[in-house]
Amino acid sequence: MVLKWEPSSVQDVVAIQWAMAYWNEQTNKMRNVTKRPRIGLFAGDSCSRPKEAISQSLRFLDAVGFHDPTECLLNNKEALRKRSEAPRLIAVLSPKDSESANSVAQALKPYNLPIAAFSSSSA
């Protein structure tokens, strides 16, 4: 199986990474101002396959601890630490292709998460 990189997809990810790095750099330079949140990125390749897009999205949510309710933590110290952490806004940038984007939107609907789309046709 030969994989082919789409230059526009790579450019999109690099552009998003640059924007996030710029945001975080400006945040670090701010003094005596309420700190802005830092932004991170997890990029997964779905190869325009809806099942893979759903899998990548769920893997991301698991990696950031989205599915770990504090009542399921093993000890009280860990639960207290989790509760004292600053809240995190977690959002998903949907895949470019409409079929995968719609599949991800349907799979994540119960979570009530913000989902950003590349275009209205992939929303």
From TrEMBL:
InterPro entries: Peripla_BP_I (IPR028082)
Domain of life: Eukaryota
Protein name from the UniProt record: Uncharacterized protein
Gene source species: Meloidogyne incognita
